[in-house]
Amino acid sequence: MGLDDLVNKGKELLDENKDKLTGDKVEEISDKVLDAGTDFAKKHAPGHADKIDVARDAADKAIGDN
For residue range 33-51, what is the model confidence (pLDDT) as tens digits? Predict the structure, then answer.
């Protein structure tokens, strides 16, 4: 399973469960997804850990908790 597959699966799960999620729950889930994506990216591009962390933080801010 590639990164695109993981992202698409996450989107599907979010769409299926949007009505059940509250702000805190969304933040918890998005953090877990972002952490998993970050770990995956660092494993496959270990020389770019700093850039990956910056991208993860930017994505987290873009998602927010709303």
Answer: 899 999 999 999 999 999 9
Q: What is the pTM of this model?
A: 0.63
Fill in the amino acid letter for 49: A
Tokens, residue 36: 């998993």
21: left (phi over 0), alpha (psi -120 to 50) or beta: beta
Instruction: For residues 61 and 55, give the distance between their C-alpha atoms in angstroms, rounded to a whole number.
Output: 10
Tell me, rounded to whole angstroms, the distance of Cα 23 from its chain centroid: 15
Q: Is residue 5 a contact partner of residue 37, using CB atoms and an 8 Å limit? A: no
The amino acid present at 63, given as its one-letter code, is I
Which two structure tokens, joined as six digits, stand for 50? 């700093």
Q: Of the candidates 21, 55, 8, 20, which has an alpha carbon nearest to the alpha carbon of residue 35?
A: 55
